[in-house]
Amino acid sequence: MPPSKKGAAANGDAADAADAVAAAAAPPAKKLKPAPPPPAAGTAGGYPLEPGIVNPETLAAAEELAAKYQAAQPYKHTQVINPFNPELLRQVRDEIINNIDATYKETDLFKLFQTGDMGNLDQLDPDTAAKLPGLMKLKRALYSDEFRQFVTTVTGCGGLHTRTDCSCNVYAYGCHLLCHDDVIANRRVSWIIYLSDPDDPWTAEDGGALELFPLEGGDKHTPAPNPTVSHLPTFNTMAFFTVTPGVSFHSVQEVFTDSKPRMSISGWYHGDTPPEGADKASLAQLQQRVRAEAVVQHTPIAGGEGALSDEDLGKLIR
């Protein structure tokens, strides 16, 4: 039978009374502070330098490293030994191997495997980010205010922008990077952190050295045919140099070993404006040359306006 109106009213009063008792017994809800918004993609976001990532002795040696950096030949550079927590770099290495895809790339300048831009790691979905905790810690440390100040002190390059710009590069057997000066847009300092196998130390016989070239006869924009400085990609070393148009010529020697890859994370610290003389950089000169050659007039071939024959297409496909 359907309940009477009187019974329904009684039931409603009882329910209201029960809700009032429950509300009185419940503790007042805590007001939580809203979480700060995540940093913008491609910027350091003001992250502090977490302890336990960078070797404190490395940071303390900034002035000493600066003196050596300014006197280095063939141009301003340095290679820092053991700058980071080795266990963290082992973790980063494992995360890259197991959780990041690298794409094979080959041009007339380089042959290597490269990941996408890792400057925007903070924008990853939670599931993906959970697989890369070490890598995210390292990237935040590299672009923290404290570490950028360390790089500024060593290089003397003035203030460096908070923009992040880095990727992972893997050079397998036969991979290489030919000589160039690295000048693109506002790059000020190039850096490389080596993640080669810590349990199978890299040797000169393995190839893959970072090679630095002097200028031919001291003239800008003309690198000498042979490098005068070579740095092995030893685990937990960091090399960096000032990006200087027509001066900072370097290459990655061909990798000779087929038993282990040359793995590294590399990137740049940027300034607010391009370096002086950027219009004379090697890339700019190549682009100007292409534009000049593109206006050359070609004489049409008589009878060449028609469609290609199957025989012609076969030859072109081969």
Automatic annotation (TrEMBL):
Q: Where is this region: Disordered?
A: 1-49
Has UniProt tagged this entry with the keyword Metal-binding? yes
The cofactors named for this UniProt entry are: L-ascorbate
Named from the GO MF annotations, one term is:
L-ascorbic acid binding
Has the keyword Lipoprotein been applied to this entry?
no
Q: Which residue intervals define the domain Fe2OG dioxygenase in the entry? A: 162-271
Q: Which UniProt keywords apply?
A: Dioxygenase, Iron, Metal-binding, Oxidoreductase
Bias-annotated ranges (Low complexity): 1-29
Which Pfam families does its entry note?
2OG-FeII_Oxy_4
Q: Write down what this protein is called.
A: Fe2OG dioxygenase domain-containing protein
* UniProt organism field: Chlamydomonas schloesseri
